[in-house]
Specification:
Structural class: mainly alpha
Order of helices and strands: HHHHHHHEEH
Helix content: 55-70%
Strand order of the largest sheet: 1-2
Number of strands: 2
Radius of gyration: 19 Å
Number of helices: 8
């Protein structure tokens, strides 16, 4: 990360400490000592796209656990297949689907669309197609965003 982003080691350590503390406070275990690679997550996004709605959240949780708790390489097909299998997906079918270029193209197109529309982090909220809110915020911040969206919604109508 230091070389890719030009961030000093102390700043990276401080950032990771902060994220780890926030995660711990929210009950999320993060073990950055096990993470040795910043991987391309396209296979993860493909896995999530393939998951049925009733297990999608389980897939996301399994992906987070594999990376942030176990330090697994999410750029490897077999790691992703194992994650999918743990949540009940068929490994043979999943391996074939993850090798499908059309699915990869669709995931990349969605990612490109998001980036071109200013979405660079998750979570990201768009309220009434007028107010954008990225990252996690307090309920007070959400209330302000909702009020702003409501004002923007009615303001053209009152002029």
């Amino acid at each position: 990360m230091q070389q890719r982003k030009g961030i000093e080691p102390q700043a990276i350590e401080s950032l990771f400490d902060h994220v780890q503390n926030v995660g711990h406070a929210a009950g999320v275990k993060l073990d950055f000592n096990k993470i040795h690679l910043a991987v391309n997550t396209i296979l993860c996004h493909q896995l999530i796209a393939l998951a049925a709605d009733d297990i999608k959240n389980d897939v996301v949780q399994a992906v987070y656990k594999a990376y942030f708790e176990e330090g697994l390489n999410l750029g490897e097909l077999e790691v992703i297949v194992a994650i999918g299998t743990k949540v009940g997906m068929d490994s043979t079918k999943l391996r074939l689907q993850l090798n499908d270029n059309a699915l990869a193209d669709r995931v990349l197109a969605e990612s490109t669309f998001a980036r071109l529309n200013g979405i660079t982090s998750v979570p990201f909220y768009v309220i009434n197609d007028k107010v954008k809110l990225n990252n996690s915020h307090s309920s007070q911040m959400f209330l302000q965003a909702l009020n702003r969206a409501a004002l923007l919604e009615i303001s053209p109508k009152i002029w």
